[in-house]
UniProtKB/TrEMBL annotation:
SUPFAM superfamilies, sorted: PTS system fructose IIA component-like
Record-given protein name: PTS system N-acetylgalactosamine-/galactosamine-specific IIA component
Gene3D superfamilies: Phosphotransferase system, mannose-type IIA component
Entry EC number(s): 2.7.1.191
Taxonomic superkingdom: Bacteria
Cellular component per GO, a single term: membrane
Keyword Nucleotide-binding among record annotations: no
Tagged with keyword Ion transport: no
PTS EIIA type-4 domain residues: 1-123
InterPro entries listed in its UniProt record: Bacterial_PTS_sugar_comp, PTS_EIIA_man-typ, PTS_EIIA_man-typ_sf, PTS_IIA_man
Species annotation: Proteus hauseri ATCC 700826
One annotated GO molecular function: kinase activity
Amino acid sequence: MIGLIVSGHLNFASGMASAVKAIAGEQQDIAFIDFLESISPDELEKQMRQAIDSMDCQQYLFLTDLPGGTPCNRAMAIMMQNPAVEVLAGVNLPMIVNAAFEREGCSTTELVQTLREIGHDSIQDIRKQLAQVDSVDVEEEDGL
């Protein structure tokens, strides 16, 4: 199983934690680390390293909010020192929930590819979709 570490600015991680728990239930080997104004980047990295140390996994995937932001950069520093670590930045809730469901029996490379596809597919222009539905001729059938 791949250990997951979700981190982002302010309450990004804790917000995702409550949503993931509601959708996927309790999960093992997943940590949610907020980068609050009250902690330094060094403290954030320390918490990230402690999260890895607390998990009994062979591979780890950081899921961060903003590419180039402090959580991403500190996760990247860990990745550069540890070949068992990968980082995916710019994540959203569908990606994190699916990471919880899909992380067994695959490599981090496979999981990252799957999550990138989910992230892309989960961004929807609802008005455009409704316009497409409205423009399709739908044969009406009698109801029940």
